Prior knowledge:
Shape: globular
Structural class: alpha/beta
CATH superfamily: P-loop containing nucleotide triphosphate hydrolases
Oligomer: single chain
Radius of gyration: 17 Å
Number of domains: 1
Helix content: 25-40%
Order of helices and strands: EEEHEEHEHHHEHEHEHH
Largest sheet: 5 strands, parallel
Distance between the termini: 38 Å
CATH architecture: 3-Layer(aba) Sandwich
Number of strands: 9
Amino acid sequence: MPVLEIEELKKAFVPPGGTAPVPVVDIGSFSLEAGEQVALSGSSGSGKTTLLHLVAGILAADSGRVCVAGSDMTSLGEAGRDRLRAESIGYIFQTFNLLQGYSCLENVLLGMSFGPGADMAHARSLLGRVGLSDRLDYLPRQLSTGQQQRVAVARAVANRPRLVLADEPTGNLDPSNARQALELIRGICTENNAALLLVSHDPAVLASFKRVVSLTELNRAARKEVAL
């Protein structure tokens, strides 16, 4: 059974000042197996962040199915989606989304609290794994951009998710830190046999993946925009 399976997924929004919904995501089928790592290429406005939010259950789909680790995300209410996301999905945001008033260690422990529960030893081990064992009590503002990204990676994988979603995870990093962050994300996913779905427009990032899928080709809504 695939870790991620998408079938006839659709989402539309009414634009500001508009009256009719405009399709943003319209995907017939897509799947990821355990341990598989796939990069999605997509231009601005092609629906990549919306797609990841639908997979993660942050947004509710208009129609279609998103199955994660055998559970249908689209059939669940908000509380059920939150629970499935906490149990099976790790999300790495482009802007990191760290809680600024909490230390590195507290950010990871809080991420754990939405899943099986906080595990101090595991949190410390993860931060050591990403090279931050000497920064456990630092606040995000006391860290470099690259170090903040590493905290975000540790938090995303803290609950040992079956699926990791990464939205332009190197977009705010210089080339050296971008390369290190990408190696870290992929390495941890490999260690945990987690599937990885990573969105990027960076040619260097895309070139490092064996399987690259164009979101414009996958997403029928984006293809219609291109045709216009």
